[in-house]
Design brief:
There is one protein chain. By secondary structure, the chain is mostly beta strands. Helices cover about 0% and strands about 70% of the residues. The protein has a two-stranded antiparallel ribbon. It has a two-stranded antiparallel ribbon with strand order 3-4. Strand 3 and strand 4 form a beta hairpin. The radius of gyration is 16 Å and the shape is elongated. InterPro entries: T9SS_type_B (IPR026341). This is T9SS type B sorting domain-containing protein.
């Protein structure tokens, strides 16, 4: 809804990174996903 803690956030581009573990056999590999989105009002 375009708010954070009840306050409106600016209409702009937002970048984010998701870091997560991926298990391959008995090995854990740290993976990273980066993307962005545009908040339009």
């Amino acid at each position: 809804d375009g708010t954070f803690n009840g306050n409106p956030v600016p209409a702009t581009d937002y970048w984010f990174t998701v870091t997560y573990p991926e298990t391959v056999g008995t090995t854990v590999i740290n993976k990273e996903f980066k993307a962005h989105f545009s908040l339009k009002r």
